[in-house]
Write a structure and sequence with these properties.
This protein is of the alpha/beta class and about 375 residues long. Helices cover about 35% and strands about 15% of the residues. The chain is built from eleven helices and 13 strands. It has an eight-stranded mixed sheet with strand order 1-5-4-6-7-8-9-3, with helices on both faces. The chain has a five-stranded mixed sheet with strand order 2-12-13-11-10. The longest helix is centred in the last third of the chain and has 26 residues.
């Protein structure tokens, strides 16, 4: 279903249409005095960055007097995906990449598949674009088929796996959306949390207009460092690079990109993905044991394949507030187009944290 940006879940009859706050993100739940809360609102892996990565970043500080040289990191990322360096652009996180795309890609009918990370639409709006929303629904598990997308869309953005639904769309289904005259942007910020990355399009060079975004901030705990990259055809990379300021990625961030692309780091990330999958199974099993005050199970969007799960429950806003008094922060869902106040997103954590959280969630209901 496609809608203009103003169409969203209805509020009180006769009131203005509800418009989600596209600039609200999970980190707002754990700022200031709330930093002491156990964080299930932000999807950064806990216990990161690892000591060896901190050491590599710290070693780069000796070279801060020199302007950063992105060549080695660019080559390392390219080798990691089996691509030539001219198909890689390093960015200050995936968020910068969305801004570059909004500014540099010539599009008359951009569309964004929702529910998903809201920065792509926000960046497009800021650049003066009118954005068409492709709203996936709970009825089909928030799963995309190529027929959902209007033929007229010449710029299409989709997350895979999708934040906040945790849906992993098949690579073949997304590939069907590629065509001459369309820029197909696939946000794979959480793909390295999927065992085997089996739905990734990162190494594909045969799909016209394909642009893949990756982030190193989630798996490696580098949200404060800001490092990500774009994979695309050389001419697209050149267009995006012209929209960047000079030296957009710092020397410490470049050191991190190079280090995280090495074989030992990839093996560690693969093991982390397997652990996330096991911890997610434990979270899902624990949620299945809880009952709402009217005796129903908590509705969970499944299958979940990212490092987070999306749940729907009655009085979610009140439950979320009660959880804060019990020491836990979770992500509200009503800021995502296509969702509403009954949705919450939960980051996957270790089993001990999950056990404490689900105990608190059950208490939030009974209280």
């Amino acid at each position: 279903m496609t809608t203009p940006p103003s169409a969203a879940p209805a509020g009180i009859p006769g009131s203005r249409p509800y418009e989600p706050d596209l600039r609200h993100h999970g980190d707002a739940e754990v700022r200031g005095a709330d930093a002491a809360l156990t964080d299930l609102a932000v999807n950064v892996r806990t216990g990161t960055p690892p000591a060896w990565l901190k050491a590599r970043i710290a070693a780069s500080l000796d070279g801060l007097a020199a302007y950063p040289d992105g060549g080695p990191a660019r080559a390392a990322v390219a080798a990691r995906h089996g691509l030539p360096p001219e198909r890689v652009l390093l960015t200050a996180g995936a968020a910068e990449a969305f801004v570059l795309i909004a500014r540099a890609v010539r599009a008359r009918r951009p569309a964004v598949v929702h529910p998903q990370f809201t920065e792509p639409e926000a960046a497009l709006r800021d650049a003066g674009h009118q954005v068409e929303r492709v709203l996936l629904t709970e009825r089909n598990g928030f799963r995309l088929t190529a027929s959902d997308v209007p033929e007229t869309a010449d710029l299409l953005i989709i997350g895979n796996p999708t934040n906040p639904t945790s849906v992993l769309h098949p690579a073949a289904e997304i590939a069907r959306l590629a065509r001459p005259g369309r820029t197909l942007v696939v946000d794979e910020a959480f793909m390295d949390a999927v065992p085997g990355e089996h739905a990734s399009l990162a190494s594909r060079t045969d799909l016209p207009g394909l642009v893949v975004l990756r982030s190193l901030t989630k798996t490696w705990g580098l949200a404060g460092l800001r490092i990500g990259y774009v994979l695309a055809a050389p001419e697209t990379i050149a267009d995006l690079e012209r929209a960047q300021p000079l030296w957009p990625v710092s020397a410490p961030a470049l050191a991190a990109a190079e280090a995280c692309s090495e074989p030992a780091a990839l093996a560690e990330a693969a093991e982390a993905a397997r652990q996330i999958a096991a911890d997610r199974d434990h979270l899902l099993a624990s949620l299945a044991e809880i009952r709402t005050p009217d005796g129903r199970k908590i509705h969970v969007t499944t299958p979940a394949e990212g490092p987070f799960v999306l749940i729907r429950l009655p009085d979610a806003a009140a439950v979320r507030t009660r959880l804060r008094t019990l020491g836990f922060a979770v992500r509200r869902g009503d800021t995502f187009p296509g969702l509403g106040p009954e949705w919450l997103r939960l980051a996957v954590r270790d089993r001990a944290t999950t056990d404490r959280f689900t105990e608190a969630l059950a208490k939030a209901f009974t209280d």
